[in-house]
């Protein structure tokens, strides 16, 4: 039996290599992961359910193959889902939803060798940069239990940071892969729009703002996993050019001398925590030392116009999600089964007209052209991931009475003013855990690349991982402690 210390010292590819060499079995890895849940989840509240019988049965019936063969894996209870696995979306209205089939991406995760062993928390319907629900309570940050693990993939972020699994499903409609990566000290890669499949239930969730993938502890796991699951599914409405070569081959490859922009000034004008600013400045010095050319500056756009149009899409999608859940479960949406701000967004979304939604999508198109022009002159853009280190629990409250839907949108994106731009443009972006506060809280640095150019991001991220390694850092709540 592998020890929790040994188990958690490996990333996903490392565990799969142990399986390939027959030094450990998938069943033993599953037992270790379940022991990790028992040890730390009572303090984290990140994992909602475990599936020991289902996972063991799948291992026995279909011995896992692929690059992550035998590696334990969680899915977040939002958008992606698995056959016969409860899927509550963090919402009392949707509680008890049980899908009858895997989504395409879930099927690809299985083919990559990942063993589904449970699900993780999401805030209600995913519209929150922290994960604290009325239904299940807050997810606690393993670095500081009084702080947020981020959102909306906070459950997955906390579980990976605490060593329960090396990789977990996440998705990102405004920063929901990158925010928990920053809060928990992880690698959070948001792929290019349409890089991963969202079928058969969705074409482009959130009118194209949202994308599905994962949080990981290493750059190589992110690269290899995207290799395994990328590409359109049958009937997809769009596809992008495939990688010139596998992303795994970009790990450790020399990126060449790049022209990289950087900024610590968000479009919102929001004051950025000095530690987050310092992290970017240190990254700039590191990149210059690696031979790159750094230029201060970023895309220019109206924050108010941006927020107004993003709000239309988020409110409309919230209304759709609520109505679909209500209809499928024969329930009536209301304050008794929706958090206060979710209900406000639902009501706002029901008032939005088709013309307003088309205007919002048109704004996104124009902004994408403008930002695309900026990236013609640079290879990447470095920013803070979020405006502050992980916030105290309770500060961003989705159940706060009296808050309007637009006030909520402003509060959400004030915390993460650098991430949502790249959901609108569809460009790839990655958060790397390059720094920490004096108190030890992780600080994420975001790097965004040109549309479709994950390869440059992986080469650059891998170079930074070597220059400023983070693998030895562990939170106080960890399966090996």
Write the layout of secondary structure elements.
Elements: H1 4-8, H2 12-20, H3 26-44, E1 47-50, H4 52-61, E2 72-76, H5 104-111, E3 115-120, E4 132-133, E5 137-138, E6 140-141, E7 144-148, H6 154-161, E8 167-172, H7 178-184, E9 187-190, E10 211-216, H8 219-229, E11 259-262, H9 274-289, E12 293-296, H10 303-329, H11 340-351, H12 354-374, E13 380-384, H13 405-415, H14 421-425, E14 429-436, E15 442-449, H15 454-467
Parallel strand pairs: 2-3, 11-12, 11-13
Antiparallel strand pairs: 1-3, 4-5, 6-7, 8-10, 9-10, 9-14, 13-15, 14-15
Helix pairs in contact: 3-4, 6-7, 10-11, 10-12, 10-13
- Beta-strand content: 5-15%
> What is the CATH superfamily?
Amidase signature (AS) domain
The percentage helix is 25-40%
Low-confidence stretches: none
Q: Determine the number of helices (DSSP H or I, runs of at least 4 residues).
A: 15
Give a structural overview.
- Helix 10 packs across helix 12 (354-374) and helix 10 crosses helix 13 (405-415).
- The strands form four sheets. The chain has an eight-stranded mixed sheet, with helices on both faces. A three-stranded mixed sheet has the order 1-3-2. The chain has a two-stranded antiparallel sheet with strand order 4-5.
- 58% of the residues are buried.
- The chain has 481 residues and is an alpha+beta fold.
- It contains 15 helices and 15 strands.
- It starts with a helix and ends in a 14-residue tail after the last helix.
- A hairpin with a 5-residue loop joins strand 14 and strand 15.
- Helix content is 38%, strand content 15%.
- It has a single domain (4-300, 366-401, 408-467), classed as Amidase signature (AS) enzymes.
């Amino acid at each position: 039996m592998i020890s929790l210390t040994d188990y958690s010292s490996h990333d996903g590819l490392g565990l799969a290599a142990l399986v390939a060499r027959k030094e450990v079995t998938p069943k033993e890895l599953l037992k270790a992961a379940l022991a990790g849940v028992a040890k730390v989840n009572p303090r984290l509240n990140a994992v909602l359910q475990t599936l020991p019988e289902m996972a063991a049965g799948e291992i026995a019936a279909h011995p896992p193959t692929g690059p992550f063969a035998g590696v334990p894996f969680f899915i977040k209870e939002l958008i992606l889902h698995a056959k016969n696995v409860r899927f509550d979306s963090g919402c009392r209205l949707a509680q008890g939803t049980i899908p009858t089939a895997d989504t395409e991406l879930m099927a690809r995760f299985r083919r990559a060798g990942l063993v589904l062993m449970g699900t993780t928390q999401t805030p209600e319907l995913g519209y929150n940069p922290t994960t604290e629900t009325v239904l299940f309570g807050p997810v606690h940050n393993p670095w500081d239990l009084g702080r947020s693990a981020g959102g909306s993939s906070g459950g997955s972020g906390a579980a990976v940071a605490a060593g329960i699994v090396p990789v977990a499903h996440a998705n990102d409609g405004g920063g929901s892969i990158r925010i928990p990566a920053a809060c928990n000290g992880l690698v959070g890669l948001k792929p290019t729009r349409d890089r991963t499949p969202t079928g058969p239930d969705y074409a482009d969730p959130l009118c194209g703002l949202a994308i599905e993938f994962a949080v990981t502890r290493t750059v190589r796991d992110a690269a290899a996993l995207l290799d395994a699951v990328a590409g359109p599914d049958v009937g997809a409405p769009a596809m992008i050019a495939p990688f010139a070569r596998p992303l795994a081959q970009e790990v450790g490859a020399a990126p060449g001398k790049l022209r990289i922009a950087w900024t610590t000034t968000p479009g919102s004008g929001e004051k950025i925590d000095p530690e987050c600013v310092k992290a970017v400045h240190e990254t700039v010095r590191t990149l210059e030392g690696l031979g790159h050319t750094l230029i201060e500056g970023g895309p220019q756009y109206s924050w108010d116009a941006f927020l107004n149009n993003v709000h239309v899409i988020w409110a409309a999608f919230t209304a759709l999600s609520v109505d679909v859940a209500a209809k499928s479960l024969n329930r009536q949406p209301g304050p008794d089964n929706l958090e206060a701000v979710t209900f406000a967004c639902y009501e706002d979304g029901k008032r939005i007209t088709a013309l307003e939604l088309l205007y919002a999508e048109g704004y996104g198109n124009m902004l994408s052209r403008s930002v695309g022009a900026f990236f013609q002159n640079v290879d990447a853009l470095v920013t803070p991931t979020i405006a502050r280190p992980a916030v105290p629990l309770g500060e961003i409250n989705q159940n706060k009475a009296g808050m309007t839907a637009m006030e909520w949108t402003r509060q959400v994106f004030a915390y993460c003013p650098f991430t949502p731009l790249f959901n609108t443009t569809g460009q790839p972006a990655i958060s790397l855990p390059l720094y920490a506060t004096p108190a030890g809280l992780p600080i994420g640095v975001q790097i965004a690349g040109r549309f479709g150019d994950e390869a440059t991001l992986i080469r650059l991220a891998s170079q930074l991982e070597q220059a400023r390694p983070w693998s030895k850092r562990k939170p106080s709540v960890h399966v090996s402690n």
